[in-house]
Amino acid sequence: MCAYKNSELFTQRQLFSFFALIVIAFVGNYLHASLFTGVDFLFGSIFVLIILSLYGLSWAVLASIIASSYTVILWHHPYAFLTFALETLVVGLAFKRKDANIPLLDGIFWVTLGMPLAWVLHFSLLPFDTSAALLIALKQGVNGYFNALVASLILTYLPIQKWTGDSSNRKAFPLRQGLTSLLVVSVIFPAMAILVVNNREQGRQMRADVNQRLSTLSDEFASQLLALHQRYIFTLNGIAERASRIGGEPLGSMRHELDVVQATFPGLNSVHVGDATGAVAAYAVTDDKMTTKNKLNFSDRPWFKDLQASIKPVVSEVFIGKLTHMPAVGISVPILGKGVDGRAFNGFVVASLKLDYVSDALSRQARRGGARATVVDLKGKVVATTAPDVATGQLIPVIDMESEPGLTRIFINGTQSL
């Protein structure tokens, strides 16, 4: 029933038709119909089966390999690609019989081999449970049989031989077979169209529900971050006011106050107080191993320059601590004195926030909502995250808030929550 034998040389028209059918088969898979996420209806095997009928098994297997390669990109695994190539091979071997019926052969393949193999591959080698693997297997079986019916109708009712330059007298399909195929397609196609529309609407509603849930979780954590920020600012402002009133006493005399703050807030790595030049006068740390005999100066830090210029509380971007040598975020407030305009920058109080502390709070919030969450600064450096494949301090692209309704962005000087 094959018009062209593998040993024959194609005419230019036949060769063009062959490659055109391969391209259409690939496009048929590319322009798939998504039933819902991860479940797609493909159309490429329609034209692969036409190639099988016109050009023979070898060329059909080649066409199947090329057309089905798109499934590796679409589903990120090669198992469907192997299954579709096997479909072409098995149906092609059985198709050599003179009374072969493409839909019947394809249906037998999917029931006896294709669907069981698809279930085993998805259940054993991919993260699919029993029901999900069964759904995929059934979808592939119905998809393959539907495509075989369409291919049979095209071969029966369209002058495909004339279009491809086939001058041989290929035996026509029985009228009963064509009518049966037409009847089945007339039932399956509208049902599939309704299923696609319904599932897309369900998918849209599901995404809207998920976005609403994520927005709620993000808003709640944003509120927690703001409350934590206000507590730290209130406490550090108290130290700054005390420092502005000590008169001639050195700032180093405030070590006791810093120790109290450090003991009160377990989320802090260290607390420093210093003068207007950035020189540290006293500090308190969580671990004595973090102490140093070297004089510390923060005048090179961006947050210090911002604090000096604005004379307002500043939250820094992620930096590596000079004592902890770990990623941290600094919360700083100015020590004010009397100047020409009534306000003068006389020094600073800065606290280094433990990012692990923020991550722990974020994890508790995310677990409650069954989500993953990340807090980044304005440059996209990760402040805290619950994602196992994202590291603190890592630079990630800042997401467009307009295109991601499930996210919340809050600004605390240099830090934002996503």
Tell me the major beta sheet: 6 strands, antiparallel
Q: What is the averaged pLDDT score?
A: 79
Q: Helix proportion of residues, in percent?
A: 40-55%
Distance between the termini: 62 Å
Write the layout of secondary structure elements.
Layout: H1 12-30, E1 33-36, E2 39-41, H2 44-55, H3 57-68, H4 70-75, H5 79-94, H6 102-124, H7 130-157, H8 160-164, H9 175-244, H10 255-264, E3 268-275, E4 280-285, H11 302-310, E5 314-315, E6 319-320, E7 327-337, E8 344-354, H12 355-369, E9 374-377, E10 382-385, E11 411-412, E12 415-417
Antiparallel strand pairs: 1-2, 3-4, 3-8, 5-7, 6-7, 7-8, 9-10, 9-12, 11-12
Helix pairs in contact: 1-2, 1-3, 2-3, 2-7, 3-5, 5-6, 6-7, 7-9, 9-12
Description:
With 418 residues, the chain is an alpha+beta fold. It has helices at 12-30, 44-55, 57-68, 70-75, 79-94, 102-124, 130-157, 160-164, 175-244, 255-264, 302-310, 355-369; strands spanning 33-36, 39-41, 268-275, 280-285, 314-315, 319-320, 327-337, 344-354, 374-377, 382-385, 411-412, 415-417. Strands 3, 4, 5, 6, 7 and 8 form a six-stranded antiparallel β-sheet that branches. Strands 10-9-12-11 form a four-stranded antiparallel β-sheet. It has a two-stranded antiparallel ribbon with strand order 1-2. A hairpin with a 4-residue loop joins strand 3 and strand 4. It starts with 11 loop residues before the first helix and ends with a strand. The relative contact order is 0.08. Residues 1-8 and 400-418 have low confidence and may be disordered.
